Amino acid sequence: MKKIITIIALLTIITLTGCQNEQVYKVGASPIPHKEILEHVKPILEEQGYVFEIIEFTDYVLPNSALASGELIANFFQHIPYLEEQIDEYDYDFVNVGGVHIEPIGLYSKEYSSISELPDTLEIIISNSPTDRPRLLGVLAENNIITINSGVNMEDIINSTVNNLPNLFTSDYTITFFEVAAELLFTNYNNSEGDAVLINGNFALDNGLNPLTDSIILEGSESSYVNILVSTTNNQDNEFVQALIKALQSNEVQQWIKSNYGGAVVPAA
Known about the structure:
The termini are far apart. The chain is 40% helix and 23% strand. The protein folds into 2 domains: 20-103 and 225-267, D-Maltodextrin-Binding Protein, domain 2 (3-Layer(aba) Sandwich); 106-218, D-Maltodextrin-Binding Protein, domain 2, CATH 3.40.190.10. α2 (31-47) links the parallel β1 (24-29) and β2 (51-56). By secondary structure, the protein is an alpha/beta fold. It is built from 11 helices and 13 strands. Mean pLDDT is 92; it is low at 1-21.
């Protein structure tokens, strides 16, 4: 009888231990490529005993509010300048856990297929996020569409009004910028609004555009706008969060990003 009781007790302990290891972690992500990358990582984490659910977001506000409220243990959708802006604005207790990839931003047009075709008077639609502006002007400067004035720094560009942006550079073009929410950039492009639209890489991919073949110009791979895994200060050392970033930055996953997206998404590690 004692032996039977001992076996039952042992089975009970094993069962309880198994339940404790079956915690389901929730990670917020944009659809493409973030969710796709996390889906690829899922089996790797499952082999290590971690199960997680991907919560999909299609905007740039809710993933951080959900992380702050404790609904998520981490999110994966934003770059460092945006994270820093969000922390300054909302006093979030967030931490950059590590960089994963870069999504090159591109200039797209329904009407024009090359820089040489662009009209002298140019209307460009851009994201309404101030932290995106240095990046947007940077890709125009890289491709000799504008030359940013000497002495103008990132803060000058971020703090400028959209109407004042042309005063920060010289150009052979007369450029007017129009701002919309980042998630509406593709809609503007698809409706042929403006002469061209600067579209964030994830929104381009999410709507079926191939940045390598569909853009007029594309941001270089040396971009500092790396997309990062973000968690709270309390959870940054959580074993699951650390296992997740280790997998995301592993050579296997980084090579998968490179081959799967063919250069439209660039590994950061």
